[in-house]
Amino acid sequence: MSEIRAFLAIDLDDDLKPKINRIIKEFKGIDTKIKYVELANLHLTLKFFGDIDTNGLDLLVDAISNVVSEFEPFKINIKGCGAFPNNNHIKVIWVGIEDDTILKDLHDKLDNEFNRLGFDRDKKFSTHLTIGRMKSAKNKNQVKSTIEDFEDFEIGEMEVSRISLKKSKLTPAGPIYSDVEIFEL
Questions:
Q1: N or C end: fewer C-beta atoms under 10 angstroms in the chain?
Q2: Domain range spanning residue 172?
Q3: Closest Cα partner for 144 from 20, 3, 26, 22?
Q4: Can you tell me the distance from the alpha carbon of 180 to that of 182, in angstroms, rounded to the nearest whole number?
Q5: Which residue, 67, 51, 32, 54, is CA-closest to 145?
Q6: How many domains does the chain have?
Q7: In the predicted structure, residue 5 carries a pLDDT above the cut 90
Q8: Span 23-33, average pLDDT
Q9: Are strands 176-184 and 128-134 parallel, antiparallel or unpaired?
Q10: For 126-163, what is each residue's pLDDT tens digit?
Q11: What is the pLDDT of residue 173?
């Protein structure tokens, strides 16, 4: 039995990365421990599957294809900065997605299909791009202040015209993502 660590994602347009990098540079100026997502790896996760048996990939690909065939390309607006679970208890730093009605509909339909295949439903889905994970409470107030400085920061609009089933190989230098299958809307 062969397994891969897999997830379904929307890749971020390259032309939006410099503005996100500007936010990351502000956080890097703070003396704290944050593990940042590499710019090349920035994505919006639609579903994290974990380790899955490659023998079942065809079922997964078919389910994704069926749902994606119902959607046309659509636009999302990337704006703002926030934290999970909240700004007073920071574990994850993210940039947000506005105008996400179609995106949430896509997620919900995919999640229903994945549930039929035996995957747990997402307990809650939040449209965001993770940019870093807080590893220490050191200088938390500076981090919180920087999040608040960027809470309305306009990053830009992008068209979602494809989603990717990806595999993640964990390495000491960080994860390496590669496309298993790409689905055009």
A1: N
A2: 3-184
A3: 26
A4: 7
A5: 32
A6: 1
A7: yes
A8: 96
A9: unpaired
A10: 899 999 999 998 999 999 999 999 999 999 999 999 99
A11: 83
Compute the C-alpha angle 91/93/99, nearest 5°.
130
**pLDDT > 80? residue 99:** no
Determine the Cα–Cα distance for residues 109 and 153; give it in Å rounded to an integer: 30
- At position 120, the amino acid (one-letter code) is D
Q: What is the CATH number of the domain that holds 89?
A: 3.90.1140.10
- Give the residue numbers marked as catalytic: 43, 128
From residue 116, alpha-carbon distances to 75, 109, 119 in Å are 28, 11, 7
Q: What is the pLDDT of residue 74?
A: 97
Q: What is the DSSP string of 91-153?
A: EEEEEEEES-HHHHHHHHHHHHHHHHTTPPPPS----EEEEEEE---TTHHHHHHHHHHTTT-
- Rounded CA separation 9/13 (Å): 13
